[in-house]
Amino acid sequence: xxxxxxxxxxxxxxxxxxxxxxxxxxxxxxxxxxxxxxxxxxxxxxxxxxxxxxxxxxxxxxxxxxxxxxxxxxxxxxxxxxxxxxxxxxxxxxxxxxxxxxxxxxxxxxxxxxxxxxxxxxxxxxxxxxxxxxxxxxxxxxxxxxxxxxxxxxxxxxxxxxxxxxxxxxxxxxxxxxxxxxxxxxxxxxxxxxxxxxxxxxxxxxxxxxxxxxxxxxxxx
Length: 221
Ligand code: SF4
Description:
Structural class: alpha/beta
Number of helices: 8
Distance between the termini: 33 Å
Strand order of the largest sheet: 1-3-2-4-6-5-7
Radius of gyration: 16 Å
Largest sheet: 7 strands, mixed
CATH superfamily: Uracil-DNA glycosylase-like domain
CATH architecture: 3-Layer(aba) Sandwich
CATH topology: Uracil-DNA Glycosylase, subunit E
Mean pLDDT: 93
Number of domains: 1
Oligomer: single chain
CATH class: Alpha Beta
Helix content: 25-40%
Bound molecules: iron/sulfur cluster
Strand content: 15-25%
Order of helices and strands: HEEHHEHEHHEEHHE
Shape: globular
């Protein structure tokens, strides 16, 4: 845990890409560093930029309610993002920003955390963590085997489920059966049951059909 805290402290001083010049602060992570559940979003928004913690704005509050619906408290998870600095004008982070930030920070975070379950919220997180170009609406709710390097240079496998980002749910609030909200409630209940050991995933897939490294692979910068 000390190694993770030391990494987080160094992360707060990062100026390695252009995003740092346009934001108030580096938003590193929140939650339990011993958690077996890690939740990864795209990047901080304006509320997170002011507060310094991820998932505290309207989308974060909705995420809290989604977790609660499945009996998971926010404090039981470790929350972070693909990039740690707010991108200007609500744009998505660029490929080189994602590559730089994940190499310096997210991958070392995951190496120290060694979570059992990772929830990848939204396109950017799902596409980076699975190395795919497929959109999250196509692959959400499925379990994938996700392999990572650990802090000792070995590897470990986590179960990874892509889910819709709560910001997407705020833009698409329909509650109809089969709509984004009802699918998300189904997904989080499934994820929580697997996390608690109440069930095994019915099927765990390898990486989805993809170009090597997906949108964020080498040579894409
Ligand atoms: S987005 Fe990541 S790589 Fe870029 S300055 Fe912020 S912490 Fe550093």
